[in-house]
Amino acid sequence: MRIVIEPPYQARPGDVLTPPLVMSLENETGPNLSEQEPVDPTLFWAVVSVVSEDDMTLLAPPRTDLLMGTIADSVHPLTPPDHEGQIGFVAFPNLIIREPGRYRLRISLIKMNAIGEMSTPSYEGGTAIQSLSSRVINVAPTAEPLTPGREERDLLQALQQRGLRLG
Questions:
Q1: Are 76 and 163 in contact (CB under 8 A)?
Q2: What pLDDT does 29 receive?
Q3: Given a cut of 80, is residue 4 above it in pLDDT?
Q4: Is the pLDDT of residue 103 over 80?
Q5: Listed residue (84, 81, 103) closest to 17, CA to CA
Q6: Which residues, in sequence order, are CB contacts of 38 under 8 Å at separation 6+?
Q7: How many whole angstroms separate alpha carbon 112 and alpha carbon 130?
Q8: Residue 105 — φ and ψ, nearest 5°?
Q9: Each residue of 103-114: b (16+ CB within 10 Å) or e?
Q10: Angle at 131 between CA 125 and CA 137, to 5 degrees
């Protein structure tokens, strides 16, 4: 998994983060994925949270008033996978940070367990596979709104053409 579009480096409190945060799921194995197990993107969800600038303190949750928008979504498969091994994407097109400060967004990848599968202690739901954090976002009332660059616009357009929801 990797972030393919970072959120803006600055934003105003209450404004939608543009460009949106976009993560790709790649056909690889990680510490919690078996070497023999094919990666099925439909079994994965991603959840976004807000962490401190130093990436050490989880802020939202527990706070419910700091981050607004769609904070969880399933991985949307690419059929067929692309030439770089990307098998799915998740986009968070309507995230809003409501208070000034310096933050990062953390994406956590969750593998949903099949019904009746009890191979892990978390058999009732899912297993956290991996997480990664975005660059620092400076949220300030004086921040100038940013627009996506050409590469970001091209990738967003390509993802929309392949069916990924971006709004």
A1: yes
A2: 46
A3: yes
A4: yes
A5: 103
A6: none
A7: 13
A8: -100, 135
A9: bbbbbbbbbebe
A10: 130
Q: Which residue has tokens 């959840």?
A: 47
Q: At which residue do the structure tokens 């023999």 appear?
A: 36
Residue 41 is classified by DSSP as G
pLDDT of residue 31 exceeding 70, the answer is: no
pLDDT tens digit string along 122-166? 446 788 889 999 999 999 999 988 888 898 888 888 888 877 777
Least confident of 21-30, 53-62, 63-72: 21-30
How many helices (H) and strands (E) are present in the chain, helices listed first? 1, 13
Question: What's this model's pTM, rounded to 2 decimal places?
Answer: 0.83
pLDDT of residue 122: 47
Per DSSP, the residues of 80-131 read S--TT-EEEEEEETT-EE-S-EEEEEEEEEEEEPPTT--SSTTTTSEEEEEE
Specify the DSSP element, H or E, that contains 52.
strand 44-52
Q: CB of 95 within 8 A of CB of 105?
A: yes
Contact predicate 52/103, CB 8 Å: yes
Distance CA 141, CA 137 (A): 13
Structure tokens given for 74: 């399933």
